[in-house]
């Protein structure tokens, strides 16, 4: 009796991308490597700018939180890696908060936002405002203002640095925190509440020791369906705008203000959002990280990188 043929199984090289200050993330994603391994997928952490990322079959952005300071280099890199999750066109669109205008135009209830390019006169809404760069992460450069003169001065500083400015009315509901809705492969996964990050006018946010993001106070949440509806609407509008399927987005975090009577989108995070895994109990975290691994598996199949994709004669 002859021997059974040994299956020629392809093992794709998977990288979870951090940054030089956090090459293995901030700890929240601990467990993803094991979740992938359980599905027969080998993954390792690297800083996004490590040349070895170019050898990977697929790179999953997780903690590339210095990209704002190196945006041109970062966007060029997204086109150099073989396959990126989320995809380069998603990253290019979502790194600029002008995407909020696209979502508002599509009918997603969105916090009112005005954008001003360098050289444009900044028009402020009445009352307290938030002024921040249109391209920014981790609350860097975001400040609250009561004084219109101070707000315009901050906008002028950002303009002088060549940056587009985003102006929003300060919404007091922020004091109750934001609800962060997490989606995996287009399906709702879990949620958590983020305490207010922006301090009162005249104060600066407190950053973590890596200097890459403002410290946040996070707690688990069980949002009403009306908030989840905003999340689903935001994902659907983004996918349609980008010409892709919702489940092509491996991960997404939708930050929503307010309760069920009037929820509004604050941000849609598709580049490298913290997913709040540590807010889950052990059983739920294991189950939902398995969904993340299944999402990676599905992406590999779509890309022709499944386990039997490289069979040799």
UniProtKB/TrEMBL annotation:
Keywords associated with the record: ATP-binding, Ligase, Nucleotide-binding
InterPro entries reported for this sequence: ATP-grasp (IPR011761), DcsG_Biosynth_Enzyme (IPR053191)
GO function term, MF aspect, one: ligase activity
Domain of life according to the entry: Bacteria
PROSITE patterns, alphabetized: ATP_GRASP (PS50975), PROKAR_LIPOPROTEIN (PS51257)
Keyword Ligase attached: yes
Signal peptide stretch: none
UniProt domain ATP-grasp: residue ranges: 100-297
Keyword check for Ligase: yes
Protein name: Glutathione synthase/RimK-type ligase-like ATP-grasp enzyme
Organism: Mycolicibacterium moriokaense
Lineage: Bacteria, Bacillati, Actinomycetota, Actinomycetes, Mycobacteriales
């Amino acid at each position: 009796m002859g021997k059974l043929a040994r299956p020629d199984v392809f093992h794709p090289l998977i990288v979870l991308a951090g940054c030089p200050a956090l090459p293995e993330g901030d700890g929240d994603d601990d467990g993803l490597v094991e979740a992938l391994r359980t599905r027969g997928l080998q993954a390792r952490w690297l800083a996004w700018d490590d040349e070895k990322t170019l050898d990977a079959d697929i790179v999953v952005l997780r903690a590339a939180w210095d990209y704002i300071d190196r945006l041109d280099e970062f966007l060029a890199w997204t086109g150099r890696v073989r396959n990126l999750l989320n995809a380069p066109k998603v990253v290019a669109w979502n790194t600029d908060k002008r995407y909020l205008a696209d979502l508002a135009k599509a009918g997603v209830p969105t916090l009112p936002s005005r954008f001003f390019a360098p050289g444009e006169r900044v028009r402020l809404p009445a009352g307290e405002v938030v002024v921040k760069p249109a391209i920014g992460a981790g609350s860097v450069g975001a400040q609250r203002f009561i004084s219109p003169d101070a707000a315009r001065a901050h906008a002028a500083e950002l303009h002088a640095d060549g940056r587009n400015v985003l102006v929003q009315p300060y919404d007091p509901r922020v004091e109750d925190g934001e609800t962060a809705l997490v989606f995996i492969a287009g399906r709702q996964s879990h949620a958590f509440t983020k305490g207010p990050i922006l301090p009162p006018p005249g104060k600066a946010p407190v950053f973590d020791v890596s200097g890459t993001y403002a410290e946040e106070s996070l707690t688990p949440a069980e949002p009403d369906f009306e908030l989840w509806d905003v999340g689903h609407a935001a994902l659907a509008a983004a996918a349609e705008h980008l010409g892709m399927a919702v489940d092509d987005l491996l991960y997404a975090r939708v930050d929503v203000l307010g309760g069920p009577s009037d929820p509004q989108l604050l941000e849609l995070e598709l580049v490298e959002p913290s997913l709040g895994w540590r807010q889950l109990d052990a059983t739920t975290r294991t189950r939902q990280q398995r969904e993340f691994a299944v999402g990676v598996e599905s992406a590999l199949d779509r890309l022709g990188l499944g386990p039997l994709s490289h069979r040799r004669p």
